[in-house]
TrEMBL record:
Keyword Repressor recorded: no
UniProt key word Kinase: yes
Signal peptide start-end: none
Protein name: N-acetylglucosamine kinase-like BadF-type ATPase
Assigned keywords, A-Z: Kinase, Transferase
Pfam family, one: BcrAD_BadFG
Gene Ontology molecular function terms on file: kinase activity
ATPase BadF/BadG/BcrA/BcrD type domain segment(s): 7-300
Originating organism: Actinoplanes digitatis
Gene3D superfamilies referenced in this protein's UniProt entry, alphabetically: 3.30.420.40
InterPro entries: ATPase_BadF (IPR002731), ATPase_NBD (IPR043129), Euk-type_GlcNAc_Kinase (IPR052519)
């Protein structure tokens, strides 16, 4: 029998990622699949989980896997039971024994950025929220209520407001904006203006899963960088909403701050503004959470060993730079 292995899964709204690793942080398998958020992905959660697990186990002896931690967006509150059932079913279908441990995307994202037990996560990707951790336990969260009722400052929030501005520009309620051309290019709609273009964009927007509307966000950022006033206001509003969410979660002085999600980790005006705001508030640069599946694997290592995860092991799993402890 080979070395003891753990599994970490980060089931996002658009992509599900899986990592198989040893207890010292060596990654021996990876797999990806479609989104697994029951609120916005438009697909079957269990199928995405099973596909990612199966891909990651292609060259792995399944009998050596002792524990898995699976985290997902949309798995808190009312979604907790449904995700736990889907995870258990996918785990069995992938040929694994035992029961997986399920957590939310918050624990996974925070663990992807640091091994410190105390700090704050600020996330903006498909969704958006802030979460405060103490002693490794989630103590308070703000937002993360989904594309329809919250997620202020997320990629979907940006995309929806861009489409609203585009439709307003097309029917005369709003000012002209280069976002019209960007939206037409994004959705493959022909024509520079008019009611037909507005209706075509409307149909394309409603035909897409809500999570997919966030794919328009990079074009909004590009238009902002080019000086489009409408895009500038949307990006400034997104950054302001995210910083307000961070403030609302009650971050303690000197706490580690972890950033997660494409809006904050990829280059762009929203991420720059948020980083500047956080630096002014905390006096320190935030850390980046880039590999949620690695963060979930780090949680699995900690659960299986019953000990804090060594920084060097955390760095191997997440691909992060080895950060010295603040203690």
């Amino acid at each position: 029998m080979g070395a003891t292995l753990v599994i970490g899964v980060d089931a996002g709204a658009t992509t599900t990622r899986c990592v198989v690793a040893t207890l010292d942080g060596e990654v021996v398998g990876r797999g990806t699949a479609g989104g697994a958020n029951r609120n916005s992905s438009g697909g079957e959660v269990g199928a995405s989980l099973c596909a990612a697990l199966t891909a990651s186990l292609a060259a792995v002896d399944r009998s050596t896997v002792r524990l898995g931690v699976l985290g997902a967006a949309g798995s808190a509150g009312a979604g907790r039971g449904a995700f736990r059932a889907a995870a258990a079913r996918a785990w069995r279908d992938a040929g694994l024994t035992g029961e997986p441990v399920t957590v939310t995307d918050l624990e996974v994202a925070y663990a992807a950025g640091t091994a410190e037990p105390d700090g704050v996560l600020l996330l903006s990707g498909t969704g958006a929220l802030a979460a405060r951790f103490s002693g490794g336990v989630l103590r308070r969260r703000c937002d993360g209520y989904g594309w329809l009722l919250g997620d202020e400052g997320s990629a979907v929030w940006i995309g929806v407001r861009a489409l609203r501005a585009v439709l307003a520009a097309l029917d005369g309620r709003g000012e002209p904006t280069t976002l019209v051309d960007a939206a037409c290019a994004h959705f493959g709609v022909a024509g520079p203006s008019g009611e037909d273009v507005a209706q075509a964009l409307l149909a394309a927007g409603f035909a897409a899963p809500p999570a997919a509307l966030g794919r328009l966000a990079p074009a909004v950022g590009a238009a902002c960088e080019s000086g489009d006033p409408v895009a500038v206001r949307i990006c400034a509003a997104a950054a302001g909403r995210l910083l307000h969410t961070f403030d609302s979660v009650g971050p303690p002085p000197g706490a580690v701050v972890v950033l997660a999600g494409s809006v904050l980790l990829n280059p762009g005006p929203v991420g720059r503004a948020v980083r500047a705001g956080l630096l002014a508030r905390t006096g320190a640069e935030p850390r980046a959470a880039r590999d949620g599946a690695g963060g979930a694997a780090a949680l699995a290592v900690g659960l299986l060993t019953g000990a804090p995860v060594a920084p060097v092991v955390h760095a191997r799993l997440t691909g992060a730079r080895h950060e010295p402890s603040r203690e």
